[in-house]
Write a structure and sequence with these properties.
By secondary structure, the chain is an alpha/beta fold. Helix content is 39%, strand content 17%. It contains twelve helices and twelve strands. Helix 2 runs parallel beside helix 4. The structure holds 5'-O-[(R)-(carboxyoxy)(hydroxy)phosphoryl]adenosine and zinc ion.
Length: 420
Amino acid sequence: MRILGIETSCDETAVCLIEAEGSFNASFKFRILGNALRSQAATHAPYGGVFPNLAKREHAKNLVPLLKQVLQSRKRPGQGFTKPLSRIGDLKTIGKILEREPELFETLEEFLQAHERPEIDAIAVTHGPGLEPALWVGVNFAKALALVWDAPIVAVNHLEGHITIAAMDTKRGLRNPFDAVLQDVGMSGRLQSFEFPALALLISGGHTELDLMPRWLEYKMLGETRDDAVGEAFDKVARMLGLPYPGGPEIARLAGIAREKGFTRPNDRSHSVGRAKPLSLPRPMMNDDSHDFSFSGLKTAVRNLIGGRTLTEVEKMEIAREFEDAAADVLVAKTARAVEEHGARSVLVGGGVSANAHIRLRLAEALAEAGVKLLVPVPELATDNALMIALAGYFHAQNRDFVNPDILRADGSLRLSYKI
Ligand code: KG4
Ligand code: ZN
């Protein structure tokens, strides 16, 4: 089955075409036929966070060029577009679907006049959660394509995309010389084997939640953040330290240097902020009975610690290290406790923060001790991408879990599950 995945929930515009077969077991395999992603990070960087309307505009501008890139890799002899574009008359309806995205309509119309229908069996699009104006662009784009290409739509929950990609064992195939511009073409993968019940730990810029997964596609929320998401805390603390957006990778970099240079050995106070005592930040709700999280107090503690002073480079590294340690401590403690309470055999970690090497290591150590399998995506697939949407979409398409385009809506606060 060929699935076209579309992702526009935040500040990454992404399109991916995969070919997949098999079910939720060793029979499953996929191959990327085309993949293109454009990050808007640089556009949003001056604002220190994502601006929804700016994101919407960028998605509208990027989608058609990315789709073109994805499909161009299919133009090899014998593998080109097969079915003729049959319903060009529907352009009027598309105009209606895209009436709030006139620029997208224009580029799409041009694209559709020039290209035949590609071989696809379904379109998988993120319909939430995320920034609603941004989500709508992807959803409307999917509706328009579905109409012209007469393809069914799978509405994908972004969080399920993150979980699905965590379960994949990905291999980099040989890059096809025809596809030199498309990074991941030829990449293939299978499902890792693991046992249920599993836990899903979702750690991203918009979410921090723990879900119990009794089986595939079933989630029961155990806990979530009561305030900031952990990625949001990384981004805000990075900003306080004068680091660029997105802050997660920057904090990780500085924290890594601090650890490597041993700035924070317990007896070495010479580099500590304020010099009087070693740097220490709180671990909010770490020993709390619930499975909920809280990261806004940690962020405020950093603000108080800085107290408006200009920090030295060493102080910044120390704060980054202590902040990352605090976040890791909380995530590890909460996950380990939920594992124990629910007898989980596996933990799937998804979302941008799962790219964090220190957090991965700490989780791996704790779960190995408990004999529980840890599944994390390769770092470059931890942040938002369309492969994860195509993959999650595939499993729903297999169940013929399609959505009526007329009632499909973007839902910024879409949930994976409700608290039990
Ligand atoms: O999943 P994602 O790409 O977008 C959302 O769905 O939110 O996650 C983005 C978040 C940002 O907050 C970013 O700072 C964080 O993931 N992030 C990291 C790292 N790489 C990305 N946080 C910590 N360490 C990293 N290496
Ligand atoms: Zn995400």
